[in-house]
Amino acid sequence: MPSELSEQLTSYLTDAHSIEMQALAQLRTAPELAGDPELGAMFRDHLGETEGHERVTRDLLEARGAAPSKLKDVVMGVGGKGFLLFARLNPDTPGKLFAHALSYEALELASYELLARVAVRAGEPGAEGAALRIRDEEQSMMERLQSKVDRAFEASMRAHPRDDEAELLPKYLADAHALEEQAIQLLERAPKLVDDARLASVFADHLAETRDHAELVAARLEALGGGPSKLQDAVMRLGALNWGAFFQGHPDTPGKLTAFAFAFEHLEIGGYELLRRVAARVGDAETISTVETILAQERAAAGRIAAGFDAAAEASLRAVGVTG
Fold it and tell me: Are 229 and 174 spatial neighbours (Cβ–Cβ below 8 Å)?
């Protein structure tokens, strides 16, 4: 096996272990924030699975004479706790937790898809099999989460004071617009970072859709007598620029960017699923129709990104000097 390929497989395993450490930090607290006994039980069950994933990735690293990165693990663990603090500070904690959990499972799924492909290239069936088994469990968790969106929504509504219900729709629309602004910033830079024509086309096509989404959401806000939050949009755009710098600082940019984009689509999907239910609660048929249109396009974009996992893995390997 070329040394560059062996090093890249070790790097992917190190990243996978760090991702699991962040997942553990989140899942240890998630049950008490879920606001619903079924959701809480689901998070507790997945905590047990995630503890197993952490052991598997650590064992694979040790079998290669490597070890988890203490720095990465600490940074990711702190990040997981930081999100939980953010969720606690929002009145709709269960909804924020649901959307983020769906997105994080998508990030893990994509990461293991890429890891499995690198393991195939490296001729290491043990690592490939482990990656695919964990991927399947992350996929199953995503499906369980999506089946519980109604419970997450109802838990979020219980967390709000009843007399604020009429104000929820503009707030959820403003959150959606801010997410679209971040997506635009990411997608404007993505085609230049992936070094693959097919992936670049996927990102460029979805950029056009995303600009339309931002306009549609802004129109609904204006129809309700409000508008996007300039501060919230600016913060999200700045976050996107920081992510862009992060991707450029890693040699395997195409893989990391593709995994993150897949996760971001699911963050939007989770958010729009909740927004659709808020609109239904207050009887806003126009917003329901708008959200259903956007949701269909976000799901289709996630599918196109997933179809590019092969290309992303190959582009990442080229970026670190692995050819042939």
Answer: yes
Burial of 101 per CB tally in 10 Å (0-12, 13-18, 19+): buried
pTM recorded for the entire structure? 0.89
- Phi-psi label, residue 225: left if phi above 0, alpha if psi -120 to 50, beta otherwise: left
Residues 6+ apart with CB under 8 A from 69: 14, 17, 18
Residues 242-260: tens digit of each pLDDT: 444 444 445 568 999 999 9
Taking residues 47-75, report their average pLDDT: 86
For the chain, the average pLDDT equals: 86
Domains and CATH numbers, the chain: 1-160 (1.20.1260.10), 164-324 (1.20.1260.10)
